[in-house]
């Protein structure tokens, strides 16, 4: 029998770098634009934020849209922070999430690229598993992800994965980043797997998810040094997915 793939996880000190709300405004804007038809305001249904960190997105969705939310995250400090904000939060794994049947939309805000395994194939398997956990639920998935479109096919995301997941290349990267800070990455030595738009679209479709909406994020600055990774465009885009086997609207 095939062994389950083990996720390569960031250390607590690396996860701490995500304790900020810099991306929440655009995530909520995209969510409101793309997911409003799938949430019943005033109903008990939950919007679940998988890898929801300190709960900033969940708190904003509840505060602005009046929708109850639940965060699922592995990091204990993040879970404590959510609870301080009055957000329901469960310390659990995105690969085996608790499913209660009260979920309407399940969000993956900037988490899929962290579900990395020892190879590119096993990484895709982990990312697929996180989505698959919701396959038989009557939910829509909202995915907000970093997009790295490349001048050469889908090369940029692959190069970043190869460098960040290799101990040796990451040590070199760390040294270079002392001189060129824009090359700094808190994922050095563990790995991160960004993808191009077309790559994410193929990925979702190939795993049986219909992409019902896609919103392009604003262009982010790419330094000259990072352009050496053939990065043509760097953004945070959002997608809404519906399982092909589900008949819900
Ligand atoms: C880049 S942060 C994103 C935080 C927040 N969603 C945002 O958009 O700013 C990734 C989050 O995913 C969480 N995470 C990583 N792997 C996970 C897993 N297997 N299960 C649950 N949470 C995970 C981390 O603890 C972290 O809070």
Automatic annotation (TrEMBL):
InterPro entries: SAM-dependent_MTases_sf. SUPFAM superfamilies: S-adenosyl-L-methionine-dependent methyltransferases. It holds the Pfam family PCMT. This is Methyltransferase type 11 domain-containing protein. It comes from the Bacteria. CDD domains: AdoMet_MTases (cd02440).
């Amino acid at each position: 029998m095939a062994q389950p793939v083990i996720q390569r996880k960031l250390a607590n000190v690396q996860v701490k770098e995500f304790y900020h709300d810099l991306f929440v405004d655009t995530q909520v804007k995209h969510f409101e634009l793309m997911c409003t038809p799938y949430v019943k305001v005033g109903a008990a249904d939950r919007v679940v934020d998988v890898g929801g960190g300190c709960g900033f997105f969940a708190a904003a969705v509840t505060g602005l849209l009046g929708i109850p939310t639940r965060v699922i995250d592995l990091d204990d400090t993040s879970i404590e922070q959510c609870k301080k904000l009055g957000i329901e939060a469960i310390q659990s794994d995105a690969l085996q999430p608790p499913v209660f049947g009260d979920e309407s939309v399940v969000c993956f805000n900037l988490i899929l690229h962290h579900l990395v395994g020892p190879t590119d194939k096993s990484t895709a398997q982990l990312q697929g598993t996180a989505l698959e956990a919701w396959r038989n639920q009557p939910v829509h998935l909202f995915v907000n992800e970093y997009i790295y479109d490349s001048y050469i096919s889908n090369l940029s995301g692959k190069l970043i994965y190869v460098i960040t997941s290799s101990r040796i290349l990451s040590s070199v990267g760390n040294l270079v980043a002392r001189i060129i800070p824009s090359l700094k990455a808190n994922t050095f030595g563990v790995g991160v797997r960004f993808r191009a738009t077309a790559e994410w679209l193929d990925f979702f479709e190939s795993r049986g998810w219909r992409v019902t909406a896609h919103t392009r994020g604003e262009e982010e600055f790419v330094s000259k040094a990072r352009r050496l990774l053939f990065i043509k465009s760097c953004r945070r885009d959002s997608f809404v997915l519906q399982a092909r086997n589900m008949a819900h609207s």
